Amino acid sequence: MGAQHQKIWLITGTSSGFGKRLVVSVLARGDCVIATARNIEKLKAIFPAAERSRLHLLQLDVSDSPEVVQQRMKEALSVWGRIDVVVNNAGYGVKAVLEEGGSLAALTQFQTNIFGVLNVTNSVLPHMRERRSGTIVIIGSRSAWRPEVSPAGFYAASKAAVHAIGETYASELRPFGIRVLIVAPGAFRTEGVHAYPATIHNHVPAYDAARDAGMARFAALAGHERGDPAKAMELLVDVVKGEGRAAGRDWPLWLVLGRDAYTDVRAKCNRILKTMDAWEDVATDLEFSDCEQL
Q: What is the pTM of this model?
């Protein structure tokens, strides 16, 4: 592959899940990868030295301070002199009833899933703006459209937030030739995604039955998800590179992945539209009487 066509990817959270599969897919296409994770020794065990001619391993905890993250991104930029694609994949899901988790659980969840995305992305943007080229990928979740599923409310809120941030980035970065892709996967069979116990900072016995039932539903799903994460990441590489199943298609701001995700997102949109239709007659006639109709 010619150097002008070879992309340099920085992918966070590559020791498991989507991140680990994405590294494999990108390398198979002939591109270079800077793979990050909190535990560098775990990465070394996953990716043997023989595979590292186009792979650089970098320790990064996206929940660290902006200054620490920025220093890690400087190290990443020094590896091959540029970064073409940033994939914000690192994240995890707090399981907590909102009243029991409170603001402490929210801050813990948001530090990784929201502030980590901001700190990583903002550390690379000056480089991309100078080159007037680049792609920012944000791995969100269909959970943002299913926040009623308890006890995953804080996780759903964090993903809804990064979806909105992704849309704002797309608007702000378009003049600089930087693309943004928001990925919203459904349930895929990735390891450890439901391994975290319930977080309880303020135990409320009234929630015991509902909390336990919710945790049991997640535990029963683990390992039985129908989605193949390797196939999902192959499609993601297709989209970023404009190859394979994405060849000839327009760039999508949103990439919803999985049959279940399509079902859930459409269902949420239809519920909102139904509610708007039912209330439009009284909820829109609220202007000052001397205002002209638009």
A: 0.94
